[in-house]
């Protein structure tokens, strides 16, 4: 099953929380919030969230502020921070299958005969492209709308485009966090 780790999920939650406190008109990407506030707001374990916030600060997504009103604030415009960047920073590379990406030095021995390698490579690239197209600002927008090309999905699986019924417009392909 393909899913985000809890660490990546919590990192995205924290960045979205800070982005929702943005004041770009004042040149500030967010008000500061401390780890405890974010952890309490979303029911996230504080020790784990603290480590995630430190990693995000080291990677340049957050600025750490010390003192009584200290905490973390966005170091970059949330429109320039992509979900893909955050996930890779926290979890490392996204690996759908080992047949076209090396993982721990192991390569698939069935590559020569595999009939799904190319379709899976396209799925993998599509996932990366989608995650790279979604910014933290997008995730903070209640009107976030992601379109999916159902014709491309149909071609990938050898279906006729007429056989594919597009999802209703109100459904989102990405979970709102």
The coarse overall form would be elongated
Helix content: 40-55%
* Strand elements, count: 2
Largest β sheet strand count, sense and barrel closure: 2 strands, antiparallel
Our Rg estimate from Cα atoms comes to: 19 Å
Instruction: Give the helices and strands as they follow along the chain.
Output: HHHEEHHHH
Number of helices: 7
Based on secondary structure, the structural category is mainly alpha
In terms of DSSP E residues, the strand content is under 5%
Q: What distance separates the N and C termini? A: 20 Å
Strand order of the largest sheet: 1-2
Give average pLDDT, whole number. 80
- Parts with pLDDT < 50 across at least 5 consecutive residues: 152-157, 159-165, 167-177
In short:
The protein has 177 residues and is mainly alpha-helical. Helices cover 41% and strands 5% of the residues.
Question: How would you sum up this structure, described in words?
Answer:
Strands 1-2 form a two-stranded antiparallel ribbon. Helix 1 (6-19) packs across helix 4 (83-91) and helix 2 (35-42) packs across helix 3 (46-58). Strand 1 (62-65) and strand 2 (71-74) form a beta hairpin. The protein is elongated, with a radius of gyration of 19 Å. It has helices at 6-19, 35-42, 46-58, 83-91, 117-133, 136-140, 150-156, and strands at residues 62-65, 71-74. The protein contains seven helices and two strands. By secondary structure, the protein is mainly alpha-helical. The protein is 41% helix and 5% strand. Mean pLDDT is 80; it is low at 152-157, 159-165 and 167-177.
């Amino acid at each position: 099953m393909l899913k985000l780790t809890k660490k990546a999920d919590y990192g995205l939650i924290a960045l979205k929380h800070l982005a929702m406190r943005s004041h770009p008109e004042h040149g500030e990407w967010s008000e500061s919030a401390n780890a405890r506030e974010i952890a309490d707001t979303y029911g996230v374990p504080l020790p784990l969230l603290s480590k995630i916030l430190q990693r995000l600060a080291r990677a340049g997504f957050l600025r750490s502020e010390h003192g009584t009103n200290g905490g973390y604030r966005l170091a970059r415009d949330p429109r320039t921070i992509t979900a893909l960047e955050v996930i890779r920073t926290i979890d490392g590379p996204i690996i759908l299958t080992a047949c076209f990406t090396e993982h721990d030095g192991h390569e698939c021995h069935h590559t020569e005969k595999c009939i799904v390698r190319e379709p899976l490579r396209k799925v993998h690239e599509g996932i990366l492209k989608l995650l790279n197209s979604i910014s933290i600002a997008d995730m903070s927008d209640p009107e976030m709308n992601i379109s999916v090309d159902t014709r491309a999905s149909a071609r990938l699986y050898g279906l006729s485009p007429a056989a594919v019924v597009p999802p209703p417009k109100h459904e989102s392909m990405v979970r709102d966090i």
